[in-house]
Design a protein that fits this description.
198 residues; 62% helix; Transcriptional regulator PadR-like family protein; Tscrpt_reg_PadR_N
């Protein structure tokens, strides 16, 4: 069994909705703010090869035009079993590595105005993420995202609302985290502006 959170499990989850080629998967994972896992092309193609060798997915060669060949990947029964086993298992969170909070930990070493500039940029970034996730959450609730439409084709109609609500709730969590991080950064700005006691 594959260990912990990994690109392999993210790929299996996406391919469960519908078969895709490497290019489609790369475009999907490059749109990180719309999802919860990002990965560059340099990781996706080697991972797909490893997964195919492990029997988790299978690739079907397709010819487009006269010379262009592509491989379309689909999840296998073994891959589906691996994904379901991983989904139903509690996993230890990875060690904390947050570059921004590490930076903030040492703000006392730079001028307050420079630290404030970093904090303001962070707040803007978190607010932008929250806005993007709100839009995606609404699209999920409306069952109006391409991957969800594909997934719902294979699920009983009576489950559609529950599936959409569960997926939208993940992005409600992302919104809550971004909102809390922005609020924390605003409080940090306040602390920076407090006068230094004599």
């Amino acid at each position: 069994m594959l260990e912990g959170m990994s690109l392999q499990h993210a790929l299996l989850g996406v391919l469960e909705a519908r078969p895709m080629n490497g290019y489609e998967l790369t475009r999907f994972f490059e749109a990180a703010p719309r999802w919860v896992w990002s990965a560059p092309q340099s990781q996706i193609y080697p991972t797909l090869r490893q997964m195919e060798q492990a029997g988790l997915i299978e690739g079907q060669k397709e010819i487009r035009g006269t010379r262009l060949r592509r491989t379309v990947y689909s999840i296998t029964e073994r891959g589906l079993a691996e994904l379901r086993a991983w989904l139903g298992t509690a996993h230890t969170p990875p060690p904390a590595r947050d570059a921004f909070f590490l930076q903030a930990l040492f703000f006392d070493m730079i001028e307050p105005d420079r630290a404030a500039s970093v904090l303001k940029a962070f707040i803007a970034e978190q607010e932008q993420l929250a806005a993007e996730w709100r839009a995606h959450r609404e699209a999920l609730l409306a069952k109006d995202t391409p991957l969800l439409k594909e997934r719902l084709k294979n699920r009983p109609a009576g489950e559609h609302d529950r599936i959409a609500a569960l997926k939208a709730h993940v992005f409600a969590g992302q919104i809550a985290v971004a909102t809390a991080r922005a609020a924390w950064a605003r409080e940090s700005l306040r602390l920076l502006e407090e006068p230094t006691p004599p």
